Amino acid sequence: MQIARPLPQYLIQRYHGWKATTHAENKAWYRRLADEGQRPRAMIISCCDSRIHVTSIFGADEGEFFIHRNIAGLVPPYAPDGDYHGTSAAVEYAVTVLKVANLVVLGHSKCGGVKGCHDMCAGNAPQLEEKTSFIGRWMDILRPSYQRQSGIADEEARLEAMEKDAVLVSLENLLSFPFVKSAIEAEELSLHGAWNDIGAGIVEYFDGETGRFVPV
Amino acid sequence: MQIARPLPQYLIQRYHGWKATTHAENKAWYRRLADEGQRPRAMIISCCDSRIHVTSIFGADEGEFFIHRNIAGLVPPYAPDGDYHGTSAAVEYAVTVLKVANLVVLGHSKCGGVKGCHDMCAGNAPQLEEKTSFIGRWMDILRPSYQRQSGIADEEARLEAMEKDAVLVSLENLLSFPFVKSAIEAEELSLHGAWNDIGAGIVEYFDGETGRFVPV
Amino acid sequence: MQIARPLPQYLIQRYHGWKATTHAENKAWYRRLADEGQRPRAMIISCCDSRIHVTSIFGADEGEFFIHRNIAGLVPPYAPDGDYHGTSAAVEYAVTVLKVANLVVLGHSKCGGVKGCHDMCAGNAPQLEEKTSFIGRWMDILRPSYQRQSGIADEEARLEAMEKDAVLVSLENLLSFPFVKSAIEAEELSLHGAWNDIGAGIVEYFDGETGRFVPV
Amino acid sequence: MQIARPLPQYLIQRYHGWKATTHAENKAWYRRLADEGQRPRAMIISCCDSRIHVTSIFGADEGEFFIHRNIAGLVPPYAPDGDYHGTSAAVEYAVTVLKVANLVVLGHSKCGGVKGCHDMCAGNAPQLEEKTSFIGRWMDILRPSYQRQSGIADEEARLEAMEKDAVLVSLENLLSFPFVKSAIEAEELSLHGAWNDIGAGIVEYFDGETGRFVPV
Hints:
Number of strands of chain A: 6
CATH class of the largest domain in chain A: Alpha Beta
Largest sheet of chain A: 6 strands, mixed
Strand order of the largest sheet of chain A: 2-1-3-4-5-6
GO molecular function (chains A, B, C, D): carbonate dehydratase activity; zinc ion binding
Cofactor (chains A, B, C, D): Zn(2+)
Shape of chain A: globular
Family (chains A, B, C, D): Belongs to the beta-class carbonic anhydrase family.
EC number (chains A, B, C, D): 4.2.1.1
Strand content of chain A: 15-25%
Function (chains A, B, C, D): Reversible hydration of carbon dioxide.
Oligomer: homotetramer
CATH topology of the largest domain in chain A: Beta-carbonic Anhydrase, Chain A
């Protein structure tokens, strides 16, 4: 790996800022977390998007949330085929090893992944249909949603509906994992869906009883 | 998804805290990020571990870093087989759509994923060898490292060596992606490796010239 | 302009140092900033003083802060009389074109401009009273502060009070600009005042609620 | 100034990073600079643009350069009319009080101020013609250049020519200041012009003998 370069200066200065403040203030806590291991209360699955950090929105202090971030915060269906499944591995670790009490899937507005899926299904992004497009294949998970929401005339509203569908598709796929299902049945785990409007700073959660997203 | 439950109260309280402070302070910035889109300077790949949030260590302001988190912060090799590849999709999005300038892989001490890989390879975790173990199959990516580091007598030192190997394996796998390689050749992208000691709060970066990890 | 001389050698050497390090490390980022334009999050107004560079104190990465520097970091009151107003033009560009979210006025200790104002008002610098003195006329902006702080016996303390007054006078003058006022009312902009002690390296911010400067 | 808000968190964290590194490493130097005053070798006049920090390009350590930044890095002509002239005050302070040895005017590519001047002169930005437009009135300083460069067909080339003209116009205006002229005649001061290509990272200086900009 001769090609690897030292850390950019801007990250180094940021690191020193953290070391002099957050870390200095919480030295003992970091030491304990290192010595005794983590014991997070919740797993949160959200998007890689730089505009929405659950650590900020939910004020994640160190040791509290086990966070998996991928494009659009999607969970694929259970498929124990021996291949690499990063998301499924993260869910398995959170539920069976860490035994988190809550598992939250957090979607968001203006999601580039969902937009890509929409455009691909609408026939406007043929490059995403190619076998070599990892983004396209990953967004296949959400493909059924395009058909479901195609009746919505306004594109922005249709995209938002698909963003919220993405949360529900992930929650449904989570139920296809035997260890998730049994943890829920044993009342050791609960599932939660939410969606964040980046511009307005609003969070809506999914209400299983009414089947709607509701502002908190 | 009738099974989905409202957001836990502790997350709602955190959210309102964020809304009243960070969001209130930066309303205009959030609005612009929503309207104009993200333009992150770097992608950071790190672990889901609740004890190490790059948003904290690198003071990630909204809109700055595109963050993918999975078990052990691993990148699998390039495999355009049409299946779901969440990590590869995230890398493709960051490099080809967002055109980030830096791609940082950040490993850390006391990594549960690396420990699992170690124990599995040592024959002490047979359940991770099963085809149905997503954790085991995901950690197969790091398997060659066990052999490489088996000469280290002290287990803690061996684990740390494997944690750092995980960073290098991910960087090497990144080079197997054609779009990563060509972005580097076009001087549009640089790769960086780093490792964080949770307890001590130290960050080391990988120096490609000497082939060693060096404290910043 | 035959009189213009080539760049001094010491600047050329510095430039090559930057080219070989910061620029080489961030080639792609500079290219993107050039192609896509700047989108700074904040405007910072500070002094020309060579001892206080906000780029250093706030680790200004390229593209982050729009920086105006003049003597004492002063903002004159709104005066759309058709004359040249460099500071007002900078504020107008930042607020109406770039739409920055934060506008920070940063004063500092041992400010030569403030000292000049103090001495002029005390009758000890008659040359600054002349119509041809640009420094004197510029520092007229701060003149009311001398009267206000004249009760402080210790000169050093009096000067510090005037330096902090300079920040407040600038913030007040900023409010006299209609586009600043309306951006604040639309919650698109917030004003911030701060003061840096050069020798001690301390930064204090102005707390609008208590009306005092407080160390960060 | 009840309206003033505390410093945003992202600036506070940056500050702590600086305090723990740059300041900690140079404590004694900062202390001396505070106690003994500044003694900068050069004054640099450049743009407020967030993409070009002379502190970075010329590696400005604390105490070395007296830096004035305004829109497009312009210097208006000498006009001792008793009004506020921030740029003239800065030049007067640098030349008569600090007695800098070099005065550098640094222009740059993709300059929003120059583009505004161009569009205004081309009749495409009527709002900049209004008396209340501080940007428009400030850019009046460069107005003669539009006519001069109007023969260049390619807009990008025309803008670059105007950006370089801006440097020359400023240098010429500097000569209209009696104290600048006499300092040059006494060989205590030299003037320098330069232009930075943001994307390519190239710096060109103005060669008074050939009347051309030349890469360093």
